[in-house]
Amino acid sequence: MRSYGEYCSIAKALDVIGDRWSLLIVRELLIRGGCRYTDLKDGLPGIATNLLSDRIRELESAGLVRREDAPPPVATTLFHLTEAGAELRPVLDALGRWGVRYMIEPADGDQFRGQWFAFPASLFLRDRDPGGPPLLIELRAADSPAVIEVSGGTVCTRPGTAADADLTLAGAPQLILRLFAGGLSPAQAADLGLQIRGDARVLDRLLPGSPDAAGSTPAGARGRTRA
Question: What does R_g of the chain's alpha carbons equal in angstroms?
Fold first, then answer.
């Protein structure tokens, strides 16, 4: 691990997490919780196997990552963030907020994983009807599904699918991101190719600038509806 050799808290922090891929490993563990090595490798397309191993060891040595030998049926090593590692969440939140400006269109060769919607979802979406019923919104982008779970004022994102989703959004990740950010209405996103299956009015409970924000919750946001 290289050092800047400066007696400065920012430099000291970058000594620990400033190497390429380090913060992205933290990102995956923040989003997904305990991960197998193969989970981390899948969530970091492009990283070499030996470099991932090196970065994990460095983060362990710095006290940000710990490993757990999980019993059957998992029967493999799981990597978790320590308390110090979890304290990086505000840093990742701020970087995610700052970096959205560069996501208007993906660059050639950019890859995508569904769990990466977690940071935009937490940044832009709010449950404006905490007393309403739980909602499940499935996101299908780049063959990598994810689910947004809305309940009791919280909005959480996880990888995978929902057998009983209230709404499904399928299409290019940049369309879903623009919808979340308020740059497109559901109708505009649909005109650009986003497939919206279910009752799009459930989005009024979540999207910035929705009518619900003024205190009026559309009926479609209060119950599970089906296409």
Answer: 19
DSSP string, 43-56: HSTT--HHHHHHHH
User: Which two tokens mark 43?
Assistant: 């969530």
pLDDT in tens, 71-82: 888 789 999 999
**What architecture does CATH give domain 9-102?**
Orthogonal Bundle (1.10)
Asked if 161 and 138 touch (Cβ cutoff 8 Å), the reply is yes
Domain 114-221 coded CATH 3.40.50.970: no
In the chain, alpha helices (H): 9-17, 22-32, 37-43, 49-61, 83-86, 89-99, 118-124, 173-181, 186-191
Percent of the chain surpassing pLDDT 70: 92
Token readout for 208 is: 């910035």
Widest CA span in the chain: 60
What's the whole-number average pLDDT of the chain? 89
